[in-house]
Write a structure and sequence with these properties.
The chain has about 240 residues and is an alpha+beta fold. The chain has 6 helices and 12 strands. The chain is about 30% helix and about 30% strand. The chain starts with a strand and ends with a strand.
């Protein structure tokens, strides 16, 4: 089974400073252990919202909000990671995504690279920009309504086009939040709450996709993850497997 563990931003992350070295070291140890166990499927962190763009497509028109911004509808339906030369190029792919699905809201955010957190030197010369596309939930999605065959075909064609252009890295479709679990801090204590969730107003800061035996195992892993981050909200959700 595949589960995604998504952690949310905090003021320090939003300020753009590097994480504490202890967090980098402990998180590196956990991820290394997860890789050795054969449980690591995918993962990345996002840069602060000051580097991101929120896009709302409605009736053929697009409104763009450049960060920094606060969270509004941050319950994601999935993610697609692409490799481009600039945010302008990422926006072009966003337009093509909207052409495929119609009215949609999502966020584009650059991914944290090893040199951003001081664990590797930045390569010389031009470096491609990895960008995460995060479509946001709708009532139909949360109700479990699948996209029409036409939309599904257009999305498949878009993925093929991304691959042919050499920009596609990975993607994941998430199940509705009815089967999710959320870890929050309540009066100084961590508390798990089962979905469904009406919304999430905490911006996504990063994710790890685990190949693991059960939802409970994913939650146990997320507890270790949260121990490192301390106060951040964390979601555990099942990933659609096809």
């Amino acid at each position: 089974m595949l589960f995604i563990v998504m952690h949310k931003t905090d003021p320090k992350m939003e300020a753009g400073g590097p994480p504490d070295q202890s967090i980098v070291t402990r998180m590196g140890a956990l991820i290394g252990e997860t890789i050795r166990a054969g449980q690591m499927h995918d993962g990345a962190g996002l840069r602060p919202s000051s580097t991101r763009v929120r896009l709302t497509y409605k009736s053929g028109r697009c409104s763009k909000e450049h960060g920094p911004y606060k969270g509004v509808n941050e319950l994601a339906t999935g993610l697609t990671m692409i490799k481009v030369n600039s945010m302008d190029e990422a926006l072009e792919w966003a337009d093509r995504y909207a052409e495929a699905v119609g009215d949609v809201e999502f966020e584009l955010g650059p991914v944290v690279e090893p040199w951003d957190i001081g664990v590797a030197p930045k390569p010389t010369g031009p470096v491609p920009l990895r960008v995460l596309m995060l479509p946001k939930a709708t009532k139909d999605y949360e109700a479990g309504k699948a996209p029409s065959r036409e939309v599904a075909a257009k999305l498949e064609a878009l993925t093929d086009a991304m691959k042919q252009a050499g920009v596609f890295i990975s993607s994941a479709e998430l199940k509705p939040s009815a089967g999710a679990a959320r870890l929050t801090m309540v009066q100084g204590k961590r508390k798990w709450t089962d979905g469904p969730f009406a919304e999430s107003k905490e911006l996504v800061a990063g994710f790890t996709i685990l190949k693991i035996g059960s939802r409970q195992e994913a939650i146990e892993w997320a507890n270790r993850y949260a121990d490192i981050l301390v106060d951040n909200e964390v979601d555990v959700r099942e990933v659609v497997e096809r």
